[in-house]
Amino acid sequence: MKIIASMLSMTALILLASCSSLPPVELTAEDFAWAAEQTTTQMLQSRCLDKPTGGRYVVVISRVTNDTNQYIDTDLLIKKIRVSMLNSGKAVITTAVGLTGPEDEMSAGVRGLGNDENFNQATVAGKGTMIAPDLSVSGKIIERHPNAGTKFATVEYYFQLSLTDIRTGLAIWEGEQQITK
User: Fold this and answer.
1) pTM higher than 0.85, yes or no?
2) Residue 78 is part of a domain; what is its CATH number?
């Protein structure tokens, strides 16, 4: 009986030792989608997008920085944020401007049709018809290793969003969602 108990104890110790050397679990696409949804929902529920004069704010999506050791499709994140904001009815998203130029180049491209006699000129978008954004959304994904070097290493991911009033440059809302692996 002592031999069996001793063998079970040794087996348990070997299993524990091998488990502690496993690398931490990385952020999954589902974690990423959940964090984007949670943070965007926090923003929408905060009433920061309730325009005092009525109507909807025009929002531009800025940069989402990936400050982690793994590849994260930030374009997927941006699309999730945009869909949530648009579906809320509280904001419209401009694709006519962006950090590296317009997201939708056709917004500017169709303005060149003003000299094309094949098009009804009354239907061609003219100068002075685009609407500048009121607010900008930016974000960052951060990875931290709070107990690196220990046998119970964990990884913390922080998904952060900021909403900035473009006219004043002041952040009017910020949110963060933490995921620990």
Assistant:
1) no
2) 3.40.50.10610
